[in-house]
Amino acid sequence: MTAKDTSHLSDISKSKPEADGSFNRLPSVFRDFIKPGGKFAPEKGRYHLYVSYACPWATRALIVRKLKGLEDIIPVTVVSPRMGQNGWPFAPADAFPGADADPLFGAEHVKDLYLRANPDYDRRFTVPLVWDKVHNTIVNNESSEIIRMFNTSFNHLLPADKAELDLYPEAHRAEIDEINEWVYPEINNGVYRAGFATAQEAYEKAVHTVFSALDKAEKIITGKDYIVGGQLTEADVRLWVTIVRFDPVYVGHFKCNFKTIRNGYPELNRWMKALYWKNSAFKDSTNFDHIKTHYYWSHPHINPTRIVPVGPIPNIEPL
Ligand SMILES: N[C@@H](CCC(=O)N[C@@H](CS)C(=O)NCC(=O)O)C(=O)O
Predict the structure, then answer these.
(1) How far, in Å, is the centroid of ligand 1 from the Cα of 279?
(2) Nearest atom, ligand 1, residue 10 CA
(3) Which of 29, 53, 226, 285 has a CA 20 to 30 Å removed from the CA of 129?
(4) Mean pLDDT for back-to-back runs of 10 residues, the chain (319 residues)
(5) Who's near 167: CB < 8 A, 6+ residues apart?
(6) CA of 224 to the centre of ligand 1 (A)
(7) pTM for the whole thing?
């Protein structure tokens, strides 16, 4: 029996843009919730997180896992940054410093996990994903939901200081939701819409949107340490993962080059650097080698030579 050909799903250079040349990110399909008393009950060691250090959505999950002190409760596996024809590989298929083998099934690629969970799966093989060892399936592959579960569902297993840390506090939910509503399409996904556009007009529209939204974010963060409510929330995590990749990758690879963060957005730069240098959950979840190698290597339709630029030097400025 020959294996089913899934290369149209795993090879990003074969993904089709919309008719107008714009890029459309499809919704995630595994959307179950880990919650006490539910089918997916929170238990130590039951769930496994798969991430790439390169991916901003996966990095959200890594940061929140660490902020909440979930390292012993939810183990993590890191893929190799070079996403090729079969999608994300594990270290045995493509060794890279900092990449791991799959400890659960010895899978060669992330796609093997998706097809194990559902042999008819017909969407993209994305990270992050949370695997359940009891039901042998993917619980959830949508980072915005994964970070909400990490925020609350395991609190009864955590020491008081970690349980009390609330990244989506009731009192600030409306404001966080309002920020997420434009940060996601205009910044997090906006840079991809600029970079993956295959028509001049679609690119220009996307890149203008990115910079108008950055201008707005710069105003909001001016004079503040956090975006909402004077405390660290998921709004910071969700914006931060894109801002930290901006100068090393999005300025060049995705042609978001009106300005850099370091030279054009002093307040966003100050906020980004403070989180990176003063909070290990951010620094330890950031691997610039994986980030730069991933983007510049994995999109040969954008960068056919696969040369990874050396700069910017440094990748992030000191405090
Ligand atoms: N909605 C998802 C998006 C995740 C996503 O698109 N991840 C990218 C990496 S940055 C991926 O794994 N892409 C693989 C592919 O499209 O083949 C989330 O936020 O979790």
Answers:
(1) 25
(2) 17
(3) 226
(4) 69 78 78 94 97 98 98 98 97 98 98 96 96 97 98 98 98 98 98 97 98 98 98 98 98 98 98 98 98 97 97 97
(5) 64, 67, 147, 151, 232, 233, 234, 237
(6) 31
(7) 0.95
